[in-house]
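[SOLVED] Predicted holo structure with pyridoxal-5'-phosphate

Edit: marking solved, answer below. Original request kept for reference. I posted the sequence and ligand SMILES and asked for the 3D complex as structure tokens.
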Amino acid sequence: MPPSPPRAWAEINLSALRHNLRIAAETWPDMALMAVVKAGAYGHGLEDVARFLSEENIAFLGVANVGEARRIAQAGITTPIYLLGATWSEEREEIVRHHWVPCISSLEEARHFDQIATAQNTVLAVHLAVDTGMGRGGFVTENLTSTLRALRELDGIRIEGIGSHLPSADEDEDFTRAQFQQFTHIINLLGGPHSFRWRHLANSAGLLGYDPHTCNLARPGLMLYGISPLPQHQEKLQTVMTLKSRVTLIRTLPAGHGVSYGRSFVTTRPTRVATIGIGYGDGYPRHASGHGPRVFVREHFFPILGRVTMDQMMIDVTDAPEIQEGDEVELFGPHVSVTELAAQSQTIPWHIYTGITPRVQRIYF
Ligand SMILES: *Cc1c(COP(=O)(O)O)cnc(C)c1O
């Protein structure tokens, strides 16, 4: 059978990824990095991105869960793996066996890890998670001194780090600055910076926009993929993913002709309409429909007409007779900002990236 070229694909620019990693590393002196690769490296492809980053100078790969840790380990990648989310008790044998680093949010899980590690005749490095405002995990800040004392009595685990998370580093500067101060205060209360080999609070926005205080590790995700949550830092970064498709069909519709489901768009003039082979089944946000999304073809922008359908969408190319069937289309990337598309879809860039479905082939270069 002849090959069937993909109708939608994502080009992943690894040198842009390296550039963004450099920017992250150079933001503060002596700041180590945990490269966050959860959710399939934000849709960029877990194994390929993790392998690439593992050859750069990073301290950890940050994943959401054991399933992702397993895939990285099975790919033969040996960079230490940090589990950002809570773990199930059934997963902990495997976590200890591989020395994946969990963050600890309760004495129960700490005791369970201690038991398993002792049975395996090993000591598991763990980080103490502290909730300074996110409300999602970690110990609340009361009684931290006695908590730490109880944790230190467990011989099967070693508290190698302390971490917390920022809920509004891109929305509330005052709160975030206070959180950095609080985190430093907590660390001092628990014996000072030297009590913890790793001290981490910052995501991308925290790293780019704030004084790191006593932190020596940052956990950037989004910025590695080329998007800054803080617009004033966007220029330094390079887009890693370009989502592409092709014009599959071109026709001219008369004035007064509806385009797409619901006929929310009706032509007002004879309109040359190009159909493109990508839709919400590929993860292109259907919610952008009607809010001004545009695509880039042969050096020009074209508006999407009517609703995005599952596998196809239409654009108006009346004013560009040079556009032909088979032409490549950029849905987002260096010309069409994913931040703009996210805003048109009432969502955030993280959501757009992680929504790109497996049907979209990832091509690395
Ligand atoms: C996802 C995540 C990050 C990365 O956040 P970005 O905003 O993408 O940089 C950092 N820390 C934790 C705990 C996370 O869950």
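OP edit: The pocket of pyridoxal-5'-phosphate is lined by residues 36, 38, 84, 165, 203-204, 219-222, 229 (CB under 6 Å). Thanks to everyone who chimed in.
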